[in-house]
Design a protein that fits this description.
2 domains, 5 strands, Rossmann fold, 11% strand, five-stranded parallel beta sheet, alpha/beta
Amino acid sequence: MSEKLPPILLIGCGKMGGAMLSGWLEQGLSDAVVVEPHAAAVAAFTGRVRVVADAAAIPADFRPAAVVTAIKPQEAPASLPAYARFSAQGALFLTIMAGRSIASMQAALGATVAGSGALLGASEQDAADLRRAVTSPKGTTERALAVLMEADAWPKAMSRAIQAATDRARELAG
């Protein structure tokens, strides 16, 4: 890849955060700061990214294009307000947390948090059209969706699994 990825602030570097960071580094991540209090979780990235233990230790001159939250949903209310300054600077916020509503993210971060649901709600386009518009041709999401959209992809067990995850997400959202 000839073009480097823009600077990213990764909050949490457990299994999911670490997997994302590995991929970004392989794709040419230009600069990153990782907030992770557990040194063992970031040992594999030593010397490749800047690692800090908490938000207060993020260098003052660091301006991420994106802030990615990969923390447990239960940690969000106490953790996220420390990152609101990046929202004010125009950084895009992305999360992999289950059970956190856009409203809860807005409450924690302020001027600017939105999500796919808000895009869908404001658009006159069909959800399937929007999904096609943001799915990279021949990319990983397209491959996964092809499997999930097969006629036999949603047996009763899958429906129950989705319902269980939805129920838990609502519980976590409080």
